[in-house]
Amino acid sequence: MPFQPRVAILVPAPDYEERWQPAFARKAAALAAAGLIVEQRVWTDPGDLVGYDLVLPLFAWGYQRDVAAWYALLDRLESEGLPVVNPVPVLRWNSDKAYLAELGGKGVAVVPTVEVAALDDARLAEAMAELGVDEVVIKPAISGGADGTHRIARGAPVPADAIGQRRLVQPLMPGILTDGEFSLFFFAGRFSHAIVKRPALGDFRVQEQFGGRETLWNASGAAQALAAAALAAAPAPPVYARVDMVGDASGRLHIMELELIEPSLFLHHAPDKGAAFGSAVYGAI
């Protein structure tokens, strides 16, 4: 009988409100087709993980809401020497969007970003002046699912949940409203597929829970090259990756973020329906 590695996929706690099971089923099916035995472990209390051939944080959704627990888990995975994909140094690096400044410093086109240690109205006005825009998006540096993300016009007050908090301030990129946000997917360093996510009318957030919708996108060579340049800056080559980008007023693409922890992979849009994803994970064992 051929060897079938056991894989533990970290999933949300039972009280997590977003529906993750359909996406889990697609990923689990792709991994099973590649010859892997898939089991679920709750990321906030995974128990003993020794004996698994691989640990995947693919559904560690909500980690941004309990950052201390998330970093403690990463420390534990590392100290116990458990096999993790993506590797723990990649997960830790990708947890905080301060990596955008690192990408920019390496010449990668990123969405212009001003980091503010404690946001208030005065510091918001300064950040807008520094960026040279009249409308911005603010978000936590450790965030997901558009949690704590707000669109703010000049003169509007800082939202209550952001006052005194560390926040990233970015211009509202025109492309998000006209063309949408582009996501490119890579498995074992190879481009797989791409989608474009468009927000609902009157919104700027592209997530499904806010009415966003996605369609398949034919990624240009320039978009693929930009994504590859951004991924090359990671501490180690990621086994799976989603690269989100958006256009400016002239259509030039900028990296919005790298999703190397628990990205939705939209495998139903992949031409092979996830075979490359499964092979990449199996090959990491």
Summarize the structure in words:
The chain has 285 residues and is of the alpha+beta class. It has three domains: 6-95, Rossmann fold, CATH 3.40.50; 99-109 and 175-268, D-amino Acid Aminotransferase, Chain A, domain 1 (2-Layer Sandwich), CATH 3.30.470; 114-172, Dna Ligase, domain 1 (2-Layer Sandwich), CATH 3.30.1490. Helix content is 27%, strand content 24%. It is built from eight helices and twelve strands. A five-stranded antiparallel β-sheet has the order 10-9-8-11-12. Strands 4-7-5-6 form a four-stranded antiparallel β-sheet, covered by helices on one side. A three-stranded parallel β-sheet has the order 2-1-3, covered by helices on one side. It starts with 5 loop residues before the first strand and ends with a helix. The mean pLDDT is 91.
The CATH topology assignment of the largest domain is D-amino Acid Aminotransferase, Chain A, domain 1
Broad CATH class of the largest domain? Alpha Beta
* Share in helix: 25-40%
Question: N- to C-terminal separation?
Answer: 18 Å
Order of strands in the sheet with most strands: 10-9-8-11-12
Alpha carbon gyration radius: 19 Å
Number of helices: 8
* Major sheet summary line: 5 strands, antiparallel
State which percent range the strand residues make up: 15-25%
Oligomer: single chain
Topology pattern, helix = H, strand = E: EHEEHHHEHEEEHEEEHEEH
Q: What form results from the Cα inertia axes?
A: globular
